[in-house]
């Protein structure tokens, strides 16, 4: 009877990913250890840098990867599959296939989805970057993109990164952003309004990297958040991506940064955490490096846990196998919480322990 039940279950879910030697996994997962009001997320690998790598699209083809994705996380963020260049490759053509599949996967596995992203300077299609449009046309292109994409997943997206990386390090609006350059910074408020009209239940976020310490960029976001809230623009959250490097020290002021936005009545979130390091010759991190990395991960989690309304904690991929880091920073790597074979690093256990203690 017990044997029958097990095999029936296996037929539905398939065998679990193989446990690696020395793996201390005892059945607890990040999602099951987390406090009820905190989503634990990961990026879902596909598109972007993956397209040039010698492997097929991870989300669609790597079964063990999908198992870990379902088992460990209560939130998923399409890494590239909802970006303009992917989802809107031609002016009058959308490509929803991968995004639909991720949203379906999330529904089947009881996961939230973080939509990423609507207003950004990067990964926009050539037709948009190189086209000649009047201001009115450009505005209507953005509006109809937001209505179409946000509207398609209405009721199924927990949080949208509406505006991504809109300030530079000095706290000035990025002029590389075509919408901001051509239409002025007021377009940011409009993007939030349109997204809210298309999905009134989604929490709408400002999202950026380089906001883990106080400084001009954080000041700019705080001023913008106050301005948007005063104008009753539907802004609901502020997120730190938290792409960290061990070159720059521990993120020990992050809690105080998040608190400034919590004080405004906003949700806060960690949306893209990873911690890269300089790899020694041979490419294998030292035990000490792995401990330091674990400490950084834990510091970021603790910052989120310390703030009342930090409700989503996402790592930017869970395995080094698919990390963007070595592709963009050739001498650095090992930035995620699992090795290529999905065995867990000290950073994984640091998160698990931090979550358990917070429950
Ligand atoms: O991880 C993404 C990678 O696959 C893409 O090639 C890259 C292109 O810009 O974007 C990566 O994700 C970025 C995210 O969308 C926004 N914040 C920075 C992330 C890392 O570059």
| CATH superfamily caption | Glycosidases
Quickly count the helices: 15
Bound molecules: ligand 9MR
Q: What is the topology, as strand order, of the major beta sheet?
A: 1-2-3-4-5-6-8-9
CATH class (first level) name: Alpha Beta
What structural class is derived from the secondary structure elements?
alpha/beta
Instruction: Give the second-level CATH assignment, the architecture.
Output: Alpha-Beta Barrel
Strand content: 15-25%
Low-confidence stretches: 1-22
How would you describe this structure in keywords?
single chain, 359 residues, TIM Barrel, eight-stranded parallel barrel, binds ligand 9MR
Care to describe what's here?
This protein has 359 residues and is of the alpha/beta class. It is built from 15 helices and ten strands. An eight-stranded parallel β-barrel has the order 1-2-3-4-5-6-8-9, surrounded by five helices. The longest helix is centred in the C-terminal third of the chain and has 20 residues, at 287-306. The site of ligand 9MR has 10 residues, from loops.
């Amino acid at each position: 009877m017990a044997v029958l039940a097990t095999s029936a279950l296996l037929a539905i879910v398939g065998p679990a990913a193989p446990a690696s030697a020395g793996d201390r996994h005892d059945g607890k997962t990040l999602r099951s250890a987390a406090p009820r009001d905190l989503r634990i997320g990961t990026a879902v690998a596909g598109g972007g840098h993956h397209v040039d790598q010698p492997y097929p699209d991870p989300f669609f083809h790597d079964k063990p990867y999908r198992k870990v994705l379902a088992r460990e996380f209560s939130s998923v963020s399409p890494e590239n599959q909802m970006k303009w260049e992917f989802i809107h490759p031609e002016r009058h053509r959308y490509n929803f296939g991968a995004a639909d599949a991720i949203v379906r996967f999330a529904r089947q596995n009881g996961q939230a989805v973080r939509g990423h992203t609507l207003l950004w300077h990067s990964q926009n299609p050539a037709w948009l970057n190189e086209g000649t449009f009047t201001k009115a046309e450009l505005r209507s292109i953005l509006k109809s993109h937001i209505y179409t994409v946000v509207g398609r997943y209405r009721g199924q997206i927990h949080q949208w990164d509406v505006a991504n990386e809109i300030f530079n390090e000095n706290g000035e609006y990025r002029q590389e952003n075509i919408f901001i350059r051509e239409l002025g910074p007021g377009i940011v408020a409009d993007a939030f309004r349109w997204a809210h009209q298309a999905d009134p239940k989604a929490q709408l976020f400002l999202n950026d990297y380089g906001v883990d310490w106080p400084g001009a960029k954080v000041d700019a976001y705080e001023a913008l958040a106050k301005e948007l809230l005063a104008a009753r623009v539907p802004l609901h959250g502020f997120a730190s991506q938290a792409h960290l490097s061990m070159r720059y020290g521990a993120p020990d002021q992050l809690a105080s940064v998040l608190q400034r936005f919590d004080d405004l009545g906003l949700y806060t979130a960690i949306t893209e955490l990873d911690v890269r390091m300089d790899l020694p010759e041979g490419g294998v991190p030292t035990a000490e490096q792995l401990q330091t990395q674990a400490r950084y991960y834990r510091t970021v989690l603790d910052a989120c846990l310390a703030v009342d309304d930090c409700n989503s904690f996402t790592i930017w991929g869970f395995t080094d196998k698919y990390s963007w880091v070595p592709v963009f920073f050739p001498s650095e790597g090992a930035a995620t919480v699992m090795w290529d074979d999905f065995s867990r690093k000290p950073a994984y256990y640091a998160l698990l322990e931090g979550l358990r203690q917070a429950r």
